[in-house]
TrEMBL record:
Keyword line: Cell membrane, Membrane, Transmembrane, Transmembrane helix, Transport
Stated family: Belongs to the binding-protein-dependent transport system permease family.
Stretches that traverse the bilayer: 12-34, 77-97, 109-129, 135-155, 167-187, 269-291
Domain of life: Bacteria
Domain ABC transmembrane type-1, first and last residues per copy: 72-288
A cellular-component GO term for this protein: plasma membrane
Membrane topology: Multi-pass membrane protein
Name of this protein: Sugar ABC transporter permease
Length: 295
């Protein structure tokens, strides 16, 4: 009885310690999310009183909006391609910097430049480089004979999305590289030495030692990068503003166009809310995978 009483008291104490954190999380996450949901049930335009319309905004977006599914497709392609590219290049960067060679620290500092440069500044630089009339990329490609005339990288439906993906990969791969490098440096060298003695090749060491040792960092990086990329706004907006012909519109830019430029806050918030189940599925999938591996 005394032990049961003691455990009950400890449980109550535990709840008291947790309650402040729960209150903070509710204030920062749950309350804004609930408020946003109720906002989607209203027709609200800037300067006009709100009017209750129920699920009319959802109906218009899902079944009547001619661009919503295009935006969903663009967002998915943009996110999957960008995150995959950042993971591959970041992995190559980490593997290269994990070896000792002269000038490694200098090269590591240079490779961090895309990550530390302000996002808008880097996008403006790329916008100038990709310009079809005065851009350095067209000048170089024409100079070496790969193209015969300037290419409209940002004004052509075929090239606009790949260009945006390329810029996003350039901005984000250092984050993957540095975090994966830190994880690799935490793997004991004895494992690689023993594998080398047993005759394991570099590829076998990577698959059986390196990759299992950094897989949780990879998962966390992928989750964070997926959320950041899916929510991206400045890069695409500064680069193309969603054009041409909605070919690069993603959730962030489309929401801004509807809510701020179109002054339709109700519909804009509704578009944002449609991202919630997508994020929930991604987070639940990766979290369950990690928990299963831990068990």
């Amino acid at each position: 009885n005394e032990m049961a009483t003691y455990l009950q008291q400890e449980k109550i104490k535990g709840w008291f310690f947790v309650l402040p954190l729960v209150a903070i999380l509710f204030g920062l996450i749950a309350y804004p999310l609930i408020s946003a949901f109720f906002f989607t049930l209203q027709q609200k335009r800037i300067g006009l009183p709100a009017r209750w319309v129920g699920f009319e905004n959802y109906k218009k977006i899902l079944f009547e909006d001619p661009y919503f599914w295009k935006v969903l497709y663009n967002s998915t392609i943009y996110t999957v391609s960008s995150v995959s590219g950042k993971l591959v290049i970041g992995m190559i960067m980490a593997l290269a910097l994990n070896r000792k060679f002269k000038g490694r620290d200098f090269i590591r500092g240079c490779l961090l430049f895309p990550w530390i440069l302000p996002a808008v500044v880097s996008v403006l630089i790329w916008r100038w480089m990709l310009d079809d009339m005065n851009g350095v990329i067209n000048a170089v490609l024409m100079g070496i004979g790969l193209i015969n005339e300037p290419v409209s990288w940002l004004g052509n439906v075929r090239f606009a999305m790949p260009s945006a993906i390329m810029v996003n990969i350039w901005q984000g791969f250092p984050f993957f590289g540095i975090t994966l490098l830190a994880a690799m440096q935490g793997i004991p060298n004895e494992l690689f030495e023993a594998a080398a003695v047993d005759g394991a090749s570099w590829w076998q060491q990577f698959l059986n030692i390196t990759l299992p040792g950094i897989k949780y960092v990879v998962l966390i990086d992928v989750i964070l990068s997926t959320i950041w990329t899916y929510n991206a706004f400045p890069l695409v907006w500064v680069l193309t503003q969603g054009g041409p012909v909605y070919s690069t519109h993603i959730f962030g830019t489309y929401t801004y166009e509807i809510a701020m430029m179109g002054m339709n806050l109700g519909k804009g918030v509704t578009i944002s809310m449609t991202m919630t189940p997508i994020f929930a599925v991604v987070i639940i999938f990766f979290t369950r995978y990690m928990m299963r591996e831990v068990r």
